[in-house]
Structures are given as structure tokens and as C-alpha cells.
Amino acid sequence: MTKTKLPIRSITCIALLAGVPIACDKKSEASGNLDASGLDAASRPPVREGVLGPLPVVKVKIHGETFTLEVADEEHEKAQGLMYRKSMPAQHGMIFVWQSAEPRGFWMKDTELTLDLVFLNSAAQVVAIQTGRPFDKTNIASSSPARFVIEFNHGTANRIGLKLGDVIDLPKTLR
Known about the structure:
The chain is of the alpha+beta class. The chain has two domains: 1-45, no CATH class; 57-174, Sandwich (Jelly Rolls).
């Protein structure tokens, strides 16, 4: 059996994915080990615990208004959602994307914002609109299977006249 030597970055990624806390010393920083963004540890901006890095965004027009939606399509992104956010700009939100429509439930643990949760089926038709209250741990669910969920600042769905049965024209990149 031959041994394969893994580079430090591979070991770091494996440890992080496994949930193992790691730390780098000055020696590893000086050795030129770069993270996935191409930055060494000394150049990386500080990251607040629990806050995701920048997510891809899409522009979605709904009832004549254009919204910038962060795309959460990886499991860890969907698990965290908008937790730890102190605010969100008016025309922004987050869209959660799954491969299939199933019953979906959310909670507001560690979420300081009051949100509108808009559940969409596979055809991007609104099947439920719910309100999420800050730090509430009760289940917020749709009555029908959902493939997408959009979170907006509270009151947005009402302000733009969004209602059950409306179809949202989502970009093909999300389908």
C-alpha cells in the first residue's frame, strides 16, 4: 500500500467539512499556503462566526419590482439562511433551492429579522406565504410541497401584492 501525501489545504478542507476545529500557526502562513480564495491566512478578512461568505445572486422581477436574491442551494447555506443578519436591504432576499418539491419547514433560530417566507412549487407558483418572527423556533411550513422558498423583509409580499397562485419568473439557472 502506498501513502499519498495530501497538501495542507486538502487536509484543512477535510477537517473543516468534518467539523474539526483547526488553527494555523505563523509557520504555515509563511509557507505560502493559500485558501480556496487564493489568500493566505494573514490576508483573509475576519469572518464573524456563523456568517456565510458572499453567495451568488440572481435578479428576479416580481409584480414589476426587481429583487436581488442570494442563492442558497448548498445544504450548509440552506441550514444557515439569514441567521445572524442584523438587516437586509429593501429589494433583497434569499432564495432556497432544492432539486425536488417536498414539504418544507423553517424556523427562525438565531434570525433577528422578521421575514416573509414565500413557498413555491416546481412551477414557481406561490403555494404559501408565511411570516417568520425573530428567534422563533416553531416550524414554519407550507401546506403544499415546495421546491423554492424566498425570504423577504416582512411586509414585502403584501406591499407588492403577492398572493397564492401567482407564478414567479425564476431564472433558468435556478431550475
